[in-house]
């Protein structure tokens, strides 16, 4: 997105002087929907951690593999919270490749995401875009489009991928609990979160990016430890896709990788973890 030259070029609800997490993340994934303020945040992050792009790529790769995995179960309803800007492979495209009956409801509150999402989905009656605050679970779970399209008496998949690290304070486990409580048995949650591995050189990477996100105009983006993240997955049995002895919460790139890797993971890639949990 070129920097707007007149107010009429700025979509309704967008503040071109305030960076957006959706646009910055989209930029790291190669998207072009950026304003100058978003570019400045990307530059700062890249200066602080040159391999920061590996966090976004690791996260998105995990989301894609988790969706492929779950699309092969018999579940055909997906609630994608904080869905982000459309990329090459979006949740509905992945799951409908396996089951063209699959329904997907995307939820976000970023006006650019909502505009792109609605345009992209216009022709697909099985896919919907909802504007709601994902950190107020009732506003999502009681949303009329969500209720009209997803049947909460049958198993469904809730995605909270790359979202809960934007919750400040210690409310994130409570928010996740509300989503898990609303799900029928046999449902799944796909989850990822910025990670502080508590290894000095990796903690340093985490803190450098966190400082830019938390102290900058976006004001959010916490790298939490395993002990801080695990309570967000309470009430779920974590899938162990690699080996039964491994923890279900894994570095995103190591959660069921597509094959052997040619190069070792960067430090940044080790600063985001993901899990898929099943509600018993
Ligand atoms: N889930 C996608 C992924 O992992 O590729 C996108 C993750 S992106 C880092 C975070 C998304 O959450 C952004 O699109 C942002 O607009 C959205 N988001 C952040 N806070 C939100 C809120 N309170 N309500 C709805 N969406 C929110």
Structure, described:
The chain is of the alpha/beta class. It has helices at residues 21-28, 36-48, 53-71, 91-98, 111-121, 137-141, 144-149, 172-182, 200-215, 226-229, and strands spanning 77-81, 103-108, 127-131, 157-161, 188-194, 237-238, 250-251, 272-278. Strands 1, 2, 3, 4, 5, 6, 7 and 8 form an 8-stranded mixed beta sheet that branches. The longest helix has 19 residues, at 53-71. It is globular and about 45 Å long. The model is unreliable at 2-8 (pLDDT under 50). Bound molecules: S-adenosylmethionine (SAM). S-adenosylmethionine binds at residues 21-22, 25, 59-60, 63, 82-84, 108-110, 113, 133-135, 161-163, 166.
Task: For this entry, give a set of tags.
280 residues; alpha/beta; 8-stranded mixed sheet; globular; disordered N terminus; binds S-adenosylmethionine
Cofactors and ligands: S-adenosylmethionine
Q: How far from one another are the termini?
A: 44 Å
Shape: globular
Task: Report Rg.
Answer: 18 Å
Low-confidence stretches: 2-8
What's the count of strands? 8
* Quaternary form: single chain
Number of helices: 10
Largest sheet: 8 strands, mixed
* Mean pLDDT across every amino acid position: 93
User: Which structural class is indicated by helix and strand composition?
Assistant: alpha/beta
Strand fraction equals: 5-15%
Q: What is the H-and-E element order?
A: HHHEHEHEHHEHEHHEEE
Q: Please give the share of residues in helix.
A: 25-40%
Give a concise summary.
The chain is of the alpha/beta class and 280 residues long.
Question: Would you spell out the secondary-structure blueprint of this structure?
Answer:
Layout: H1 21-28, H2 36-48, H3 53-71, E1 77-81, H4 91-98, E2 103-108, H5 111-121, E3 127-131, H6 137-141, H7 144-149, E4 157-161, H8 172-182, E5 188-194, H9 200-215, H10 226-229, E6 237-238, E7 250-251, E8 272-278
Parallel strand pairs: 1-2, 1-4, 2-3, 4-5
Antiparallel strand pairs: 5-8, 6-8, 7-8
The protein binds S-adenosylmethionine.
S-adenosylmethionine (SAM) binds next to helix 1 and helix 3.
